[in-house]
């Protein structure tokens, strides 16, 4: 007698056979396209488009291989449908759906239907598979006579969910399509327009929801979004690596993942710096500071400047320079765009000086023009202009600012000398994350004098048109043989053919966007959005003028001093109060025993936020082990070296990261320690900042009092550290533990 598993196995095998068929068809088409040789430009463009289309499709099918089908809905009217990672149709029959894409509207009841509101669903079945084999089935019957949300607290697919949550962690986040919960589904499928804020405590699935929302939006609004692309901003490179697999596993590769430090194209802001320095750089006061710093680069000399032009002395006096500067500033152009106006005024003044020397009455307009041209080309004149109003890149401008105590004082007169000293640095040092928004702001203020580039582009286009004309002429000669045949001329002219070449940029929207500061995205998603500074928000708002954005975060977890503790504050300057707030309330990561301790810390933070309720208990109470200060590193190393199942994070205050890291490495040589620790290692040593957004099976929190003391937001940091674990938490401490941890059970050493 065949079991239900056998029945499902048969169906699932049929789906895989279908998938294999699609793959091999696409493979054949791709191979055929690649073999096509053509010198015709139009055919070549088509060939390239077809190649990338087929390659994309193959990637899409490849991504669906694991867990192709994971659900089935049986409806009260006797029909049923299967839910999976992609949609499959019966091309031979009536184009009947064989498998519904999880993002399609028809799949919604799989995530939303409850006994109280079954939406026509009689039974929801979770089909668990390993490779292509069906391993288990979990059924929920929903049309019980007097439906009510049963004892499971409204969880959908509880058995599959708990099995996913109890699995040991690998250091890489996985997708949750099989077990998305109703409150998460609402957010994932929320409309594209406007700003949506998702506030949720630790482990409520904010990151998971943000990533699935990106996949959903790209599926539903593909036309709109594939051209402009979607940007996801995360807190640091380690985190981006941690989440990097999720979207490809959902078949989406066109999303740009960046940290704030990457936001300025071509630069990587990753050098560490003191928290206070980042706070100053993140403040909105930097907008005026940078304006002052730019104005400071438009100089008027205190004394007359003497220039040697053609062995003659010429003088640029302060009043002349001031007048030229006033003229350029009055145009209200950006610094670099205003420079030609300044230069022209200086050259005009020098021309007049020269004319006076030679005797103006003897010179006609032609002579004056010659003098002007010669002066404009003179090295000494150019040098003077460069010194008084230099052409500046954002990088040069910011490096010069950081390198000079005087410039910093002019730009930031209202902060303390100690704070200014924090910004002073050698131009050779690399950029920090907080510098990226300043580079972008500087680029706005400096502007680009792109006249030379535009002229070059026009020249290029003319050359391409000439070339295209040549191509068409040759085709025309060939076509001359038969006047009835439609010629290339009938279809396209040289201008359009050349433009088509120009469009022929085979990079994806994400790749082009990464290289282009003026790129605007179709949608922007920000994770850990509470951490972003006012200056970072300015960049993101410039990159997303339509304000189609999803911001996920938790204002109780803010660690950056430039971050926020209210959503309204960051959004008011851009959208006033026109934004939607949704909340996630269930913690899928942290077991109830740990959350109870973390909730004490949250209460001390006085945010007014309610701790999320955990879906699981593990029976393992968090513990504390007290040790003498000198023994702390070794005690932590001993604990980290124990044979726990799964991954362990050792979360330490920044002041101890070196010592503890060294001690752990001596006991666990393959532990991951350092700026960018490898999360797939079994033991990882991290600061709280590095652990943001991540999770591990077990967590050792070292010296919590120092975590709290280290920052104005130290309690928030402790809250983050305590909520990284999926199974157990231990605290190791030499000092008294903070009051919120008073109740922890003591663990005996040894
Ligand atoms: N519906 C779900 N099904 C299965 N796993 C889930 C579900 N929702 C969340 N999870 C899991 O719970 C864990 C926490 O999710 P996630 O990291 O997205 O939470 P978060 O709200 O971003 O947390 P934090 O603010 O603490 O960084 C992850 O392992 C995620 O895969």
What features would you describe in this structure?
This protein has 750 residues and is of the alpha/beta class. Helix content is 46%, strand content 15%. The chain contains 31 helices and 22 strands. It is globular and about 110 Å long. The two termini are 56 Å apart. The structure holds adenosine-5'-triphosphate.
Write the layout of secondary structure elements.
Blueprint: H1 4-35, H2 41-63, E1 69-75, E2 80-84, E3 88-89, E4 97-101, H3 108-112, E5 121-130, E6 133-141, H4 158-166, H5 182-188, E7 195-200, H6 206-220, H7 222-228, E8 230-234, H8 237-243, H9 246-249, E9 255-259, H10 275-282, H11 285-296, E10 305-309, E11 312-316, H12 318-330, H13 335-358, H14 365-377, H15 379-388, H16 394-403, H17 405-411, H18 417-423, H19 435-446, H20 451-479, H21 488-491, H22 494-503, H23 509-514, E12 523-526, H24 534-543, E13 549-553, H25 567-575, E14 579-584, E15 586-587, H26 592-605, E16 613-614, E17 623-626, H27 632-640, E18 648-652, H28 657-667, E19 683-687, H29 688-691, E20 696-702, H30 704-709, H31 714-722, E21 725-733, E22 745-746
Parallel strand pairs: 2-4, 7-13, 7-14, 8-9, 8-12, 12-13, 15-16, 17-21, 17-22, 18-19, 18-20, 20-21
Antiparallel strand pairs: 1-2, 1-5, 3-4, 5-6, 10-11
The structure holds adenosine-5'-triphosphate.
Adenosine-5'-triphosphate (ATP) binds next to helix 4 and helix 6.
């Amino acid at each position: 007698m065949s079991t239900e598993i056998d029945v499902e196995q048969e169906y699932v095998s049929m789906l895989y056979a279908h998938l294999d068929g699609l793959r091999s068809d696409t493979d054949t088409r791709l191979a055929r396209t690649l073999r096509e040789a053509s010198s015709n430009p139009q055919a070549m463009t088509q060939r390239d488009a077809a190649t990338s289309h087929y390659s994309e499709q193959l990637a899409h099918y490849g991504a669906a291989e694991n867990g192709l089908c994971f659900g089935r809905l049986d409806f009260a009217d006797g029909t049923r449908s299967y839910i999976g990672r992609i949609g499959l149709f019966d091309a031979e029959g009536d184009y009947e759906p064989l498998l519904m894409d999880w993002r399609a509207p028809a799949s919604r009841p799989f995530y939303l239907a409850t006994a109280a509101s079954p939406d026509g669903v009689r039974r929801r079945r979770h089909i668990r598979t390993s490779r292509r084999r069906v391993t288990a089935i979990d059924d929920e019957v929903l049309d019980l006579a007097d439906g009510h949300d049963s004892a499971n607290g409204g969880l959908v697919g509880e058995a599959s969910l708990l099995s996913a949550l109890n699995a040991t962690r690998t250091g890489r986040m996985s997708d949750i399509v099989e077990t998305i919960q109703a409150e998460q589904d609402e957010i994932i499928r929320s409309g594209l327009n406007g700003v949506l804020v998702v506030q949720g405590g630790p482990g409520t699935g904010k990151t998971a929801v943000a990533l699935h929302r990106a996949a959903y939006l790209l599926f539903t609004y593909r036309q709109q979004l594939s051209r402009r692309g979607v940007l996801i901003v995360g807190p640091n490179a380690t985190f981006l690596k941690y989440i990097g697999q999720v979207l490809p596993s959902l078949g989406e590769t066109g999303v740009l993942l960046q940290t704030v430090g990457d936001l300025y194209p071509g630069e990587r802001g990753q050098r560490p710096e003191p928290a206070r320095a980042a706070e100053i750089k993140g403040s909105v006061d930097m907008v005026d500071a940078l304006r002052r710093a730019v104005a400071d680069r438009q100089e008027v000399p205190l004394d007359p400047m003497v220039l040697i032009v053609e062995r003659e002395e010429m003088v640029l006096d302060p009043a002349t320079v001031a007048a030229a500067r006033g003229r350029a500033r009055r145009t209200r152009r950006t610094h670099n765009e205003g420079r030609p106006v300044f230069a022209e005024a200086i050259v005009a003044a020098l021309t007049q000086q020269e004319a006076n020397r030679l005797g103006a009455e003897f010179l006609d307009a032609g002579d004056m023009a010659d003098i002007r041209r010669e002066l404009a080309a003179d090295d000494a004149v150019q040098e003077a202009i460069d010194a008084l109003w230099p052409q500046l890149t954002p990088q040069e401008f910011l490096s010069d600012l950081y390198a000079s105590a005087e410039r910093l004082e002019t730009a930031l007169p209202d902060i303390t000398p100690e704070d200014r000293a924090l910004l002073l640095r050698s131009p050779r040092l690399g950029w920090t994350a907080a510098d990226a928004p300043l580079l972008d702001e500087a680029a706005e203020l400096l502007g680009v004098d792109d006249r030379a580039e535009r002229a070059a582009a026009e020249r290029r286009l003319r050359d391409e048109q000439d070339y295209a004309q040549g191509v068409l002429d040759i085709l025309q000669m060939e076509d001359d043989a038969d006047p009835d045949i439609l010629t290339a001329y009938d279809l396209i002219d040289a201008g359009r053919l050349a433009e088509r070449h120009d469009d022929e940029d085979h990079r994806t929207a994400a790749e082009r966007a990464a290289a282009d500061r003026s790129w605007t995205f179709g949608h922007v998603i920000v994770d850990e959005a509470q951490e972003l500074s006012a200056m970072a928000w300015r960049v993101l708002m410039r990159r997303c003028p339509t304000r189609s954005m999803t911001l996920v975060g938790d204002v109780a977890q803010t660690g950056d001093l430039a971050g926020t503790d209210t959503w309204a504050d960051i959004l008011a300057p851009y959208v006033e109060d026109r934004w939607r707030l949704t909340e996630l309330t269930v913690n899928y990561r942290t077991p109830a025993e740990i959350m109870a301790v973390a909730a004490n810390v949250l209460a001390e933070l006085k945010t007014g936020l309610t701790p999320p309720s955990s879906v699981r208990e593990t029976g393992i109470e968090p513990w504390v082990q007290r040790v003498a200060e000198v023994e702390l590193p070794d005690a932590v190393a001993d604990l980290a070296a124990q044979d726990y199942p799964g991954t362990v994070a050792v979360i330490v205050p920044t002041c101890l990261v070196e010592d503890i890291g060294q001690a752990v490495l001596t006991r666990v040589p393959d532990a991951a320690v350092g700026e960018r620790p490898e999360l797939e290692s079994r033991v990882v040593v991290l600061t709280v900042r590095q652990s943001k957004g991540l999770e591990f099976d077990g967590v050792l929190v070292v010296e919590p009092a120092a975590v709290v003391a280290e920052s104005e937001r130290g309690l928030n940091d402790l809250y983050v550290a305590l909520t990284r674990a999926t199974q157990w938490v231990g605290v190791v401490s030499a000092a008294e533990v903070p009051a919120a941890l008073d109740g922890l059970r003591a663990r005996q050493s040894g």
